[in-house]
Amino acid sequence: MAGFLPHIYDTAMKPLEKTRFEKIRKNLVLQATGHVLEIGFGTGANFRYYRNAERVDAIEPNPEMGKQAGKRIRKSKTPIHTYEAIAEELPFDDNSFDTVVATLVFCTIPDPVKALEEICRVSKPGAKILMFEHVKMDQPVMGKTQEALTPVWKKLCDGCHLNRDTFDLVNRSPLEIVNVESYYGGLFLTIESRKPL
Fold it and tell me: What Gene Ontology biological process does one annotation of this record name (predicted)?
């Protein structure tokens, strides 16, 4: 299934990317400055929005996704260096990055708590952590529906957890939440946080 997903991902996401998703993603990524780490770059949907970054180091565990991103890497005006790696074991030194970006990826990370610990480790003090994620909804009916669908959804969508409460995970991490914006009735959030000084 992992080899199949990259071929349908861009097609499935295209209607969303052409609507509000594109604006949300662009506005978030434009805030990335300095030396940037992107977690789970997928097919490279964010690469065209890195206009204020000096360099982007981007990780992705799925090699098929990485192949799909080649064209977007070549078109980027910012130097982008990709690595086949997982968020729970980042191949970078402590205090390396000014900004970390993660969009629509924390739902698939097997150990998101460890991933947040690693993001804290490799971020400089005061670094910005910019996330756009779908989360478990507060509405009881929708939340129960997400719980019921998650086992099948994980198998179909490369390990995606519909019921993951990423906001709560960030809130319980050492990161300081600066701003949260809600979209589509609370199904999607942008979470802007920072590593404490």
Answer: methylation
